[in-house]
Write a structure and sequence with these properties.
Elements (H helix, E strand, L loop, with lengths): L7 H14 L18 E6 L3 H9 L7 H9 L7 E8 L2 H8 L7 H27 L4 E2 L9 E3 L4 E3 L3 H7 L4 E2 L5 E2 L6 E8 L18 H5 L4 H5 L5 E2 L2 E2 L1 H10 L43
Length: about 290
């Protein structure tokens, strides 16, 4: 591989090396331990029909990879690919949350706040290293085109990192709207679009919630019991109720830690899908492809 050529292996190694070596992936105000364990990385063709389908599933406002790349760079490459990654929360942090029922632990709060700082760093660095090698690249989440769409009944955006990860073969959705990946749902995800052809990661599922026992056959539902806000029911996830509950953590009269935001995370921990796909609870694992 010449200096300017980029492969899927190069990108995979680059992201994993950042996670293992960057000081930004450390709880520097606590014990300097890892925020995230080794990432998962997946790829999809920017012209995969699923991205057009998202305009119906999510909303017409949702950008396709080509939309995002062209708006950011003004370029229209012949080939476009999407890079997505999963950043699994470290075991030490998850373990502290399993015992809690009403308020996030300090470790979880720090991991949520500074973990997203690291995630943004990964987004920027991946886009930069690809640009330096001569490829048009952008992190849609960090671009001026990124928008949050908020109404009285919903909260979404024009670039959903979870839906991008789903398209890149990294996991399926769950009752609580999170993504259940091979390393579980206690994670964060990010993505970059690049004007380069990369081999797509197979989507080894034929149902959008194939990794969630409740969505498959009505079993489990542990996340319903774990939610202190009552935002998860058998009917699904109430985004506004969830958001309002988490917003209350930032109130000076409520919050316990000196942080601008305090994420929740109860439904991502203390559940069978916390750190893996709960195959033991699934009666049909959902093999196949959505492509």
């Amino acid at each position: 591989m010449s200096n300017n050529e980029v492969s899927a292996e190069f990108i995979d190694d680059y992201i994993k090396k950042m996670a293992m070596e960057s000081e930004k992936n450390r709880l520097q105000l606590l014990d300097n331990s890892l925020i995230y364990e080794e990432p998962l990385v997946g790829f999809a063709s920017g012209d995969d029909p699923i991205f057009s389908q998202y305009k119906t599933i999510i909303g017409e406002f949702h950008m396709t990879p080509r939309d995002a790349l062209e708006k950011a760079t003004g370029q229209t490459p012949e080939k476009v690919s999407v890079i997505s990654w999963i950043l699994p929360v470290a075991e030490k942090t998850k373990a502290t949350m399993r015992r809690e029922r009403t308020y996030p632990t300090e470790r979880w709060a720090h991991a949520r706040e500074f973990g997203e700082v690291f995630n943004e760093f990964v987004r920027a660095q991946v886009a930069q290293v690809l640009t330096e090698r001569g490829y048009a690249a952008v992190s849609p989440y960090l671009s001026p085109s990124f928008q949050r769409i908020v109404s009285d009944t919903d909260r979404t955006s024009n670039w959903s990192e979870r839906h991008i990860a789903y398209a890149c073969g990294l996991g399926t959705f769950s009752l609580n709207d999170a993504l259940i990946t091979p390393k579980g749902m206690a994670m964060r995800c990010g993505s970059v679009v690049v004007g380069l052809e990369l081999p797509p990661t197979p989507r080894k599922y034929d149902f959008y919630a194939a990794h969630c026992p409740f969505m498959v056959d009505g079993s489990c539902g542990k996340c319903i019991d774990r939610c202190p806000a009552g935002a998860i029911t058998e009917k699904g996830h109430h985004k506004i109720r969830c958001f309002n509950f988490q917003t209350a953590f930032a109130d000076p009269g409520v919050k316990r830690y000196d942080l601008p935001r305090i994420g929740c995370g109860f439904c991502q921990t203390g559940v069978p899908c916390e750190s893996a796909i709960p195959w033991g609870l699934l009666k049909r694992p959902g093999q196949g492809s959505t492509q």
